[in-house]
Amino acid sequence: LQQTIEKRIANYRTAISNAKESGESAKIRRYERGLKTLEAMLAAAKKGKKISEEEMPPPVATGKKSLQGHAASSPIVETGMRILHALCKSQNCFVLTDLQNSSTRAILLMRQKEYKLAALKAKQQGDLEKAKEYMKAGKKFNVVLEALDSGQPIDLQNMPPSPQGKARLTKTLLDISLCCNGMILNLIAKLLCNDVFVSAEASLQQPKTVLEALQQRLEKYKSAAAQAKASGDDRKGRMHERIAKQYQDAIRAHKAGRKVNFSELPVPPGFPPLPGVAATDGDSTVAAVLESASKLANMEENDEEEEVVPSAVAEEESSPEHVKRATSPSTLDKAESMDHLPPAAREQLEFLENRKKQYMKAAVKAKKENNLEQAKMYLRTAKSFDLKIEQAKCGKPVDISKLPSPPTDDEGDFIFIHHEDVRLSQKADEVYAQLIKLLKDQHERCLQYSKQFMHLGNVAETTRFEKLAQGCKKDMDILQLARAQGMDPPSHHFEERTFKMIRIFSELNSTEMHLLIVRGINLPSPPGVSPRDLDAFVKFEFQYPSAEQPQKSKTPVINNTNSPEYNQLFKLNINRNHRGFRRAIRSKGIKFEVFHKGSFFRSDKQVGAAHLKLEKLESECEVREIIEIFDGRKPTGGKLEVKVRLREPLSGQDLQTITENWLVLE
């Protein structure tokens, strides 16, 4: 059934593609509705849900032929193919398959380029939804190209249509035809001459001086810029012109005898290293690659381009200098440079360097997934760690509470493997759901604890809980894969784990104190007013910064009840180190007054008062009390629930011991 649905989906996609080419909007809408139904049925089938074949949309006529037939119908292509057949028979060589693959690759690359340009144009016009749609369609071509390279047969009938309609289709066919003609002529020449064309890069003369090498690279980027502009790719032309300008500045500086940082210059693919220039040290292969990519990403910021990072990374990866940097003995030097630091500073430096590497690895991963905007963002974040690392190397303390959290994968980024005829029992499915929920809760708690210790600057505990969070994430991935394959739930057990936690409220800053008036309980009523007719509100006064200038406010009125629910939050300004604030905490506290709301002719009537002591804030970050309401010195029987919170205790730490049942997969 799943195979039938997949074939039907391919049928509908082909029909939609052909209908778009012929401009039949009614058919497009009808086919798209059917395709949406089929995709929903396929998703349900993969999850093991029951599908009714009767509800499946019927097959439709696909209409026009694919592009491959058009491209192959060129007279030059046909003539070339006949010549190749004759040459192959005489020389026993098999190049026709390569030619067909090259022709198919040319078609796919041309269509992918159309979608990228259409996405860029849509973005420039402000149509972000259309731009995202085109980018997603363009990325799908990478999977098809990989399949083609691995030798799998490719059916171009399912290829998405041109995003620019018939006008663009004509130009595409002409470009593909010319491309195929060029490939045929090259193959014929190879067969006749029994040789391979020598590339421009291979014929480069080995430069003898640095100036000659720089000039050689400058000419390469100038010609690349001119070639890109001639082909209509203005964006790539501007990019190469910017790199050419970098080389012009470097040449002028070198001629004037000034020092030039050659490692900042991108290296064209295939070019030899600069003669007589020592390779610069780098922390790692990733660091060397991303340094150049980061600079180009910043240059490209205002141009909204998507190919800068991959081109910079590809150029850097192909550079021989890149290989030398990777093998430099920087790790020994780094170990020696850390010897003079105290243990706490070394631990902090290692933490900063590891966090920077996390972002650089995330940038490389995003680049490989063609998520270039995400890669640029990760690169900039990694670059922001440099100043803090230098401070740590000098022995200066760094406030890690302000560092960005480690990059994480999307929650739904799991690999699913679907098999036919896989069915889970209802009981097994429930077990999987419960295990995944428990692991997700553990993962969220670990991230929460890690963030708390990070705000306190505790590197060891921050790293510990980050590793625990990663372990929970891996276990969730394992469960998702096992569930998708129809396997029984893995063996598991629960361990009782005890964590010593330092309680803080990280969402508060150090210059504020939160007061929450939660509710009143059996509040007293003034004479002549029944409890059901009480219209109560609460005033408070906190004598800071002084008794003459206290901070005060009141809750809204809650009508017709003597047990009102307020849940009203007030933010009070404080200075933790001010003697007046410490005095207010130790001796004054917060004063509350409860009133019954008066009418137009009657003033508000006070029915009681209460006082909250705040000494606990010396060692705890929250005071939560249900305080008694008095009328003078006489208890009224009414009570008021209130909370006061600081970001962290005024002195010491609010230590808590938490014991949890921890799920462990075996």
TrEMBL record:
Domain of life per record: Eukaryota
InterPro entries (UniProt xref): C2_dom (IPR000008), C2_domain_sf (IPR035892), C2_Freud (IPR037772), CC2D1A/B (IPR039725), CC2D1A/B_DM14 (IPR006608)
The record, for SUPFAM superfamilies, names:
C2 domain (Calcium/lipid-binding domain, CaLB)
Q: Which Pfam families match?
A: C2, CC2D1A-B_DM14
Q: Where is the C2 domain?
A: 493-627
Region called Disordered, residue ranges: 48-72, 295-339
Keyword annotations of the record: Coiled coil
Keyword Coiled coil included in the entry's annotation: yes
Sequence ranges of Acidic residues compositional bias: 300-318
Q: Does the keyword Transit peptide apply?
A: no
The molecular function terms in GO held by this entry are: DNA-binding transcription repressor activity, RNA polymerase II-specific
- Family, similarity comment: Belongs to the CC2D1 family.
Protein name in UniProt: Coiled-coil and C2 domain-containing protein 1B
Coding gene? Cc2d1b
